[in-house]
Amino acid sequence: MTQLTYRCVQNDASCFTICTLKPVSIMSTSPRPVAAVCQVTATPDKAANLSACKQLVEEAKWRGASMVFLPEGFDYIGSSREETLSLSENLTGDTISQYTQKLEVWLSLGGFHERGPAWESDQRIYNSHIIINDKGDIVSVYRKSHLFDVEMPEKGVSLKESSFTIPGPSIVSPVQTPIGKVGLCICYDVRFPELSGALQRDGAEILTYPSAFTVATGSAHWEALLRARAIENQSYILAAAQVGAHHETRASYGHALVVDPWGAVLADCGGEKPGVALVEIDLEKVRGIRKNMPLQQHRRNTSFYHSLEKS
């Protein structure tokens, strides 16, 4: 299939790119469900971010998407620890209420700055992946398990997420959605295959990695990691992404990707501007690949893989 890209020609912040696998039609009429994977450039301006994200959601819905995926930090990306904390909210706050107004499409909100249970005393937050159904109900919340504490001065990367974020207490079960059974992860979780494997064994057909990868780590590892998770779990990968400069001290790699269960990249939003990729989800492909190469049947029991620890 050929990827069709519609590019905005006006010099306007609201412009974005539409990518789709169907070059013959603007709107999808396929019997297969369609997922929309978004790429945005969040800033500390929450109102502007909300407007940009809602524009992408409405565009994706008009083009036939059953479920729309927004990246980590869709609500905002702060310019300092203090700003990041001050802008955070509860799940019942104004930001999430804007997405629970029955938008008539399922949503994956890939990384919300959620105030923690002891906010008043410790000023710490969760990085939360929220699933909202087409009626506006929150049906699942996964809180990021693996926090990005990385110092690579030679590459200009210095982030310590644990200085203000609480690691999530548990994995959550995959969610049944109109596009299939979706397993929830966030960004840095992609480097820990134990998580995706657990979700696949619990029935996930689609794995999600909404992200805000740095330019240095993204250019080196982003596509390789996502394709590896797709291949080893024989699952679709939907990875919404942040792109470009958020403020003076932080930029993201972009390249929101969709990968099929054989490891083929179906869509890539590039590394320059916001956009959305629409792809059909073929669950028969998932089932066929798993039947023809039954990795779960070939996998040894857990004790086998831990046997070296006992020697």
UniProtKB/TrEMBL annotation:
One Pfam family this chain carries?
CN_hydrolase
- Swiss-Prot/TrEMBL keywords: Hydrolase
CN hydrolase domain boundaries: 32-283
Gene3D superfamilies recorded for this chain?
Answer: Carbon-nitrogen hydrolase
InterPro entries, A to Z: C-N_Hydrolase (IPR003010), C-N_Hydrolase_sf (IPR036526), Nit1/2_C-N_Hydrolase (IPR045254), UPF0012_CS (IPR001110)
User: rRNA-binding as a keyword?
Assistant: no
- Asked if the record carries the keyword Oxidoreductase, the reply is no
Identify the EC number(s).
3.5.1.128
Please indicate which superkingdom the organism of origin belongs to: Eukaryota
Q: Name one GO molecular function term.
A: deaminated glutathione amidase activity
> What family is this?
Belongs to the carbon-nitrogen hydrolase superfamily. NIT1/NIT2 family.
The name on file for this protein is: Deaminated glutathione amidase
